[in-house]
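Intended use. Records such as the Diguanylate cyclase (GGDEF)-like protein entry shown here are meant for training and evaluating sequence-to-structure methods. They are not intended to support clinical decisions.
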Amino acid sequence: MVTGIAQRLSRHGSSIAFRVVAVGMALVIVGAFVRIVFLSSFFKDKVEELSAAHQLSIATYVAHDIDEKFKARLDLLQRSVAALPHGLLSDPAGLTAWLAERQDASALFSKGMAVLPLDGKGVIAEYPPLPGRSGVDNSAKDWFLAARDGRTPAIGRPARSVLSGEPVIIMATPVPGPDGAPAAVLAGVTALMAPGFLNLVQENRIGRTGGFLLVSPRDKLFVAANKPDMVLSSTPPAGVNPLHDRAMAGYRGTGITVNAAGEEELSAIASVPTPGWFIVARLPTTEAFRSVEDVRHLVAAVSAVTLVVMTVLVTLIIRFILRPLSEAARRMHLMADGAIPLAPLPIRRQDEVGELALGFNYLLGKLREQEAALRESEARMAHIAHHDALTGLPNRAMFQELLRQAIARADRNGRPFALLYIDLNGFKPINDTLGHGAGDEVLRQVARRLTGVLRSADTVARIGGDEFAILLMEQEDARIASELVARKCGDAVSAPMEVEGTCVTVGLSVGIALYPEDGLTARDLLTHADQAMYAVKRSTGALARV
């Protein structure tokens, strides 16, 4: 009997079906291992690249938002100092009322504003009045000394308020007297977590468990974090976190590091220039690479199912089962080798092979979506880097590159071109009387009018506050063409504009430089046109060439 069983096993073992099943099982096992090892590594690299780019984009956006909030507060201080009547420094009641108007009109400082004497002891006036603030000695504080002695706006070290204990930051600027020397210091105080300031850094998360850190390298402090107990705590000493050490030394970008709690994180670092801080967008790698683990598990699961199905069915319908699997494997190999483009696998049956194809197609779709989102983000950032945010015209950097290209093209074709340097006349009074919003609208209308008088081959750019430049390409007579265009620009811009219900007018001062007679380099041409423009301003307003 034992001999009969041994003979039957030997006969089955030597059969083609058994050997095909055995080989198929071995191939499935080996293939599953190869896919798990190599595809997981490949997908992990891709996911890390896309996640890092996405986090850096988020960090850059948040850093820019925080920086704009600092600029708005410093601008409020400087505008307030510029508008402060000198006589109010000796009239505390009137000065308090004046501060109240500023605070009510633009409540950017949640804890109020105060005017301090030069000795830093107490306050001359404050609004809103806070118990105990008038008795505080500020004479040795960093923000007070920086504003008083440096005579420039200053941002203090984030600290806890001696009055309320909550984290605050103070910004200050000197108040000049009639002789121009500092006569007092204007300070604004805001809570770090005040609505509209840094509260979103603490409240927002990245994914389910990630978040932000806002760091002051100068003060070696965590200014804000999504974990409240980290706020105003000291940064770790050197050597604890290598990526943090690099960030403190000026590195900005992405990387993987291990935090103080021993958790591996994917971090993206971006600068907040105005206060000299940087922000870190961080996400645990267990969450960032969860999709890789899901793919690994999916591949393992599909392979196990395939192994079971092959064991049961290969002996009965070997060709029927293996034909679509072989075709799918062949196409995947061709795609991996680059012989054919990446494309969804055809799904002929809703079985395990179809599930494998669905999983691959789903993953392929996700990768394409992420790649498209990354390209769109890069294109948007490239446009922002080369165009003026207010008018949509090319900015100075892009204009200089276009000017260099124009010089190269003129050298090849032997045809001259002209450069017009334009400065608006009468723009500052509009800003001063109607405000910056009206000034911005004037600049937008001027940009549209200048664009309207040019050919499609010509270029107009905004290169400064109220300064524009025009390139007139490949002119038969560049001198006559430039003077004609300058007059057209003057006529177009000088027409009245309606801004916020008020009719305003501006004029132009235009300087002209011709290539090659006025310069052979971009710098020479810009300098020549700029000098010519200033010559126009000093003269009667006619076109001038120096």
